[in-house]
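Can't paste images in this forum, so I'm doing it all in text. The chain is below; anyone willing to post the predicted structure tokens underneath?
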Amino acid sequence: MRCSIRSLLFSTAALAGALPAAAFADEPSPLGEVVVTATRLPSRLDLVTGAHVVDRAELEARQTPFLEDVLSTVPGVGVTRNGAFGGAAAIRIRGASPDKTLVLIDGVPVNDAADPNGTFDPSSLQTADVERIEVLNGPQGSLWGSDAIGGVVSITTRELTGLTASAEGGSFGTARGFVGTGVAEDRYAVSASLAGLRTDGISRADTGSEKDPYRTATANLAGRVRLTDWLQLDARLRTTYANIAIDGYPPPDYALADTPDRNKARSWQGDVRAVVDAFGLRQTASYGDYHLWRRNISDFPEVYTATRRVFRWTAEKGGPADAWAAVVGAERIESKADLSGRTSTNLSVTSVFAVARARPWTPLNLTASLRFDDPDRFRSRSTGRLSAAVDVGAGFTLTASAGQGFKIPSISEVVCDYCFAPPVPLRPERAEGYDMRLGWLSPDKRIEAAVTGYRLAVRDQIAYQDLRYVNIARTRSTGLEAEADAQLTDALRLKLAYAHTKAIDATTGAELLRIPHNSGSAALFYNSGKWGGALTVRGESSQLDLARDGFSRERRKGFLVADLAGSYRLTDQVSLTARVENLADRRYEETLGFSEAGRAVYLGVRFRP
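Text version of the structure:
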């Protein structure tokens, strides 16, 4: 693997050298200041440890169809999936299990209440209608409550102006398209979009030969109106459909192989909010609703439904540039699920929270957050977080934080679904996390770099043992995250990311599943005149995984892959696009036993106003 890394990095350098000389002719522009909003209180990115942002410009440059492929380039974030083109996927942050990653779409939690652990599957989440992705690494319980032990992924959808459309086709009988239109003015906006993808696919099982097709579509409708100088109303509606052919463990060997099984899923979410600017405060009252329906078509058919409702109020004072700012709020989250007709229950949590930030003097910024959660079925819980950022001079900023998290048992765990022994009472999982970040910004503001060290400990982790769910496990992860963003010229931008993670079962010392010790990515972006492009190289070391029998342990090999995307603008409105995935045609797997596609070529056209 070391030789492959060297050769592909050499290819990256060679590509940069082959770019037009004009790319290096002008003095490069500085990187813009980035504000992160998933912190409840909007803050500068450099004041938040473990915060990462991917904007629309980067998504378009990469031309990546799905969110999971973008998240895998964020340091500290790992994504595993059961094969290309719609295979069930899971997001792990800082070595925590995927049920400890909270996912928000336009502020609405979308974790699956019917999943055994409450995990979100991002396999059908397309990037075509996404404006921005924010990731918060580390425990965020004081901000978002249950499920945010590993971290938070917050997704904001697009607000469109004019007609936007794209179409693409290529390898494996793949076609995808997007069409959207909208009007956006200061006082009002309305937009609608439709995105879809279909492919003949490949065999998900690496021992199989039949193709596993995949279909998915997403529709969005959004609007806002400012009725007065102090009142604004927003509303959004989003729905997704997916039809996925999967492979399983058929008799007589009960090992991973081709099967005719399928998964179908439909989801929709909506939210409405009123924003009131009065008495020096920005107050927001909102209601969000998320519904998911899943059907497994196999020899053991099952149908699951999940619902999550969120009632929320916040009052905010101050902005990212102010010497002090604060937000207070209250919310109630109601979750319920139908576990294919088996015993189920409802889980609800009522919460209050506050976040405050102060700059007592210019070099120092302090942030504190506190949250009180009162689950209907469990004891109440308070979580907090403290952070401090100090400008130590010469462009360096030192930031440290300590935070807590907790997670109430999922519905399946509470009712002990698929248990074959008497159930026992469960306690919410608890976590503490600590991290320290040293960031640097060059004097000309063209280069940003940071290195972060962290420790995350989880207690009372729920595990399925002896045919039932019990609070038995303690896990611990320590690691290092490094990143750099350099505007080399006005045309060239380089992003680097690396993570070293050691995640173990603190009770036994055993290595945790599907967490590579080393992972990283390098992306070179080019944008000059009519030409644009992005070369992304991504790799992972080996990891402990489940063997093809679904029970024993086996190591999955490490991998290194490269993707290339490019565009040429024919007119101000029309561009041609092309991308090549798995440029070197590597044979690799993200999850042991499940195939990833070989080299694939796609051509397309894009229209924008």
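Confidence is low (pLDDT under 50) at residues 1-26. The helical segments are 2-18, 56-62, 67-71, 141-144, 411-415.
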